[in-house]
Amino acid sequence: MDPSAQSLAFWSKIGKETMQRQEDFVSIEAALNRGSVYLAGEAVECTVKFRCLPSSASRQAQSLAWVSAQIHCQCHISESKVQLPVPGHRLSTEYENIRDLNNTDFIPSRGEKGDCVFSTKPKILCCDLQLLPGQCKTVVYRETIPKDAPPSYRGQAVKYSYKITIGAQRIGCPIKLLRVPLRVLVLYGLGDVSTFNVDEEFDTTNPFLAQSKTQNSLLDLAMQVLMTVTSKKSPNTYNISNAEGVVARFCLFKPAFKLGEDIIGTIDFSQSTVPCLQYSVVLQSEEQVSEECRRRPDQTAAISSHGKHQEFCLHLQKSHMILPIPLHVTPSFITDIVCLKWRLHFQFITSKEPVHEHVIPADESESAVWQGPESLPVDTLVWNLPIKILPTNPLQAACASVMRTNNTMKC
Description:
By secondary structure, this protein is mostly beta strands. It has 4 helices and 21 strands.
């Protein structure tokens, strides 16, 4: 046989075997068992399914050398606003500890933007897994998110994002990574046992289940704390005035709110001495970078608006405002890098001159029309009222989430 023909036949056989091996693969699917939103301190459960899907020409079993899973939080900073401390600082030491933890072949944050500021210890789901054609195997990955972990946040200076990364490798093949995003909410005070001494009227446990009060999960306790804090209606009244006199009287029924709630307040103009033509209320978040991480010493806080209520109020005795809190925003929190606060931003447009009301003569019909002045000299009064926004039930927040709760890859 011609040597060139033998060489051609040899390489053709190698090519067919290579193509056959490339067609054979194991499908790995990961799905979160309870939505994409969790409280810090809760246990996350993720079901991982392995299925052997060989090509039509192959009937050989496929094997995975190892499969590992890990939860990690990526911190992406804006270099124009944030400057991380020099090496040896407390913050930089935390970054170094994370890098030491990821000093293995399985690096879950490989290819991700930013730095890994939080990472759980990797858990091996299986080793030397043999799957026959069409065979399926399911394992459950379970990991607890620490209570002191930062929340998921997407701000102007800092971004915190969480993911479950599953790494798998076949013998002789590179490592492949499968990622499932999740959102983490933080409720401060869950570590204090005294916080759980809530009133019985706010107890959300099932009275028909035996020993339900002694078997409360962290989620049940968190809901009790939220119900206690946000249900206490202690109205606070504020007198709003400028140099000319009293503009209005604002009443807020409670200072703390949950995600998804409506902020309701009343504005009373009956005792005002300065005529108010128009007012607006804006729900704003205030992102403040810590002093040791600011790029510039004179750097101010970044303000973001998330809803607005506006109304004309000339000659009104009373008015009210309603501002819904979106489910996708981040509640108040603080980390070593950034602090997030919430406030109501008021703007009152007041007249410098008295605006006389139209008096209807006794002999005039009830359909009289009052014509306002064409122009008025005005002033603007700005006032900020701090409020507290807390998390809500993760199941409710998951309803408005657009995150995917499952993902699939071929290995």
